[in-house]
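Action item from last week, closing it out:
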Amino acid sequence: MSSKPWYVYIVRCSDGTLYTGVSTNISRRIYAHNSGHGAKYTRSRRPVSIVYASPEMTQSAALKEEYRIKSLSRKKKLVMIKEQKGGT
């Protein structure tokens, strides 16, 4: 079992859509998305920019949180992003 911390992240794609993923290194993952080596979904929607990153968690917790976030409506995701940035 890996002891590396995992993160859930959300990026905003160039077409305004949101993509949610997990990684142990968000910077490297964003670079991969923007260089065309990330998820198939983001390849035609570059560049992407990070809009949300979770606190450190285990891989299992990160995968569960990713699933939970992906099931949210766009509106609820935007609220979550705004709350993390300190907005009300």
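Closing note: The radius of gyration is 13 Å.
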